[in-house]
Sequence to fold (116 residues):
Amino acid sequence: MQLRLSTTAFAAALLLGGVGMFGLNACEPTAPAKRFESTFEVHGMVCESCEKAISAKVSTLDGVHSASASHSEEQVTVLYDPAETTAQTIAAAIETLGYTVVSHTPATPIATPAKP
Ligand SMILES: [Cu+2]
Fold:
């Protein structure tokens, strides 16, 4: 009886250990960074409506997580997945609204999700 109990306990421990290892493996894949940020220098924004128009337009693009614009800084900051879209695509979308994209920074990987 005692032997049987300890065998059962041993089997349970093995099972738990196996489940634990499996769970660890399942949670460990090192996914490549999918969030990159570029800041665009944009001329032509004069008020809050311009900011809203640009961030709304850019947010609809595939691969864009978020976009925020500031007319006072003449900047549009975009969080996006470069595998799905490019800074050129984002710049073109801004320009279809009538603004001028002067330059943009290279895509910089963002380790942790920024503010939602
Ligand atoms: Cu405006």
Remarks:
- Residues 2-27 form the longest helix (26 residues).
- The helical segments are 2-27, 48-59, 87-96.
- The pocket of copper (II) ion is lined by residues 46-47, 49-50 (CB under 6 Å).
